[in-house]
Structure to design on (121 residues):
């Protein structure tokens, strides 16, 4: 594929992602070696809390081609969830009222993203 064709494909992927409701679509190289020492230090310091899965499979995290053979790029997406008025931050201003985290108020964003990612793929 020529550089022009790759650029055109990347642009199309970003457009498709936007049509599916993703606020951001990024396409990156798979060389993550620059970040590995910082990530390992972050894990060693316990910054991942109870998310033990963050410490596992580091080879696959830093070498995506070990997860899926032939990987050349990684497509990452971002999706804002529960953006309607009923999910505003206003309840947090009243310290005498309990509130539910924003991500827990709407539909399960994992399911929303999974369906949209499958369509993007």
């Amino acid at each position: 594929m020529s550089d022009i064709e790759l650029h055109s494909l990347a642009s199309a992927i970003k457009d498709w992602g936007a049509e599916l409701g993703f606020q951001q679509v990024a396409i990156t190289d798979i060389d993550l070696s620059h970040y590995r020492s910082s990530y390992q230090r972050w894990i060693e310091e316990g910054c991942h809390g109870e998310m033990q899965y963050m410490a596992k499979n580091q080879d696959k995290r830093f070498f995506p081609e070990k997860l899926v053979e032939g990987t050349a790029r990684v497509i990452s997406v971002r999706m804002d969830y529960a953006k309607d008025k009923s999910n505003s931050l206003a309840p947090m201003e009243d310290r005498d009222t309990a509130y539910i985290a924003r991500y827990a108020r709407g539909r399960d964003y994992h399911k929303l993203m999974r369906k949209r990612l499958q369509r993007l793929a």
Observations:
- The longest helix spans residues 3-19.
- The CA atoms of residues 46 and 55 lie 10 Å apart.
- The mean pLDDT is 88.
- Strands lie at 24-29, 73-78.
